[in-house]
Amino acid sequence: MKNVRVMKALEEGPKTIEEIAEITKLPKMEVRRYLLRFLEQGKVESYQKDGKLFWKIKEKDEKEEEFKYV
């Protein structure tokens, strides 16, 4: 399950698409596709630092969790 490999790579901390591709041995475009899908699902988020785009697992917001089932 390739998507699990992408999430496991992010468990170690924020990474660029290139870094995730190197760790998972997946093509960069495939990694990007998984990340965009995870972004839509609210599982990951991205930020820019030093001109590079980093991806990380989204931290759960307690208030968000509280109203999840309302």
Quick structural summary:
This protein is of the alpha+beta class. The protein has helices at residues 2-11, 17-24, 28-40, 62-66, and strands at residues 44-49, 52-57.
Q: How are the strands of the biggest sheet laid out side by side?
A: 1-2
Instruction: Give the count of helical stretches.
Output: 4
Unreliable residue runs: none
Structural class: alpha+beta
What is the beta-strand fraction?
15-25%
Q: Name the shape in a single word.
A: globular
Radius of gyration: 13 Å
Overall mean pLDDT stands at: 90
Which secondary structure elements does this structure contain, and how are they paired or packed?
Blueprint (H helix, E strand, L loop, with lengths): L1 H10 L5 H8 L3 H13 L3 E6 L2 E6 L4 H5 L4
Antiparallel strand pairs: 1-2
Helix pairs in contact: 1-2, 2-3
What does this structure look like?
The protein is α+β, with helices and mostly antiparallel strands and 70 residues long. The protein has 4 helices and 2 strands; from the N terminus they run H-H-H-E-E-H. It has helices spanning 2-11, 17-24, 28-40, 62-66; strands spanning 44-49, 52-57. A two-stranded antiparallel ribbon has the order 1-2. Strand 1 (44-49) and strand 2 (52-57) form a beta hairpin. Helix 1 crosses helix 2 and helix 2 crosses helix 3 (28-40). It is globular and about 35 Å long. The termini are far apart.
Offer a few descriptive terms.
alpha+beta, 2 strands, 70 residues, 4 helices, single chain
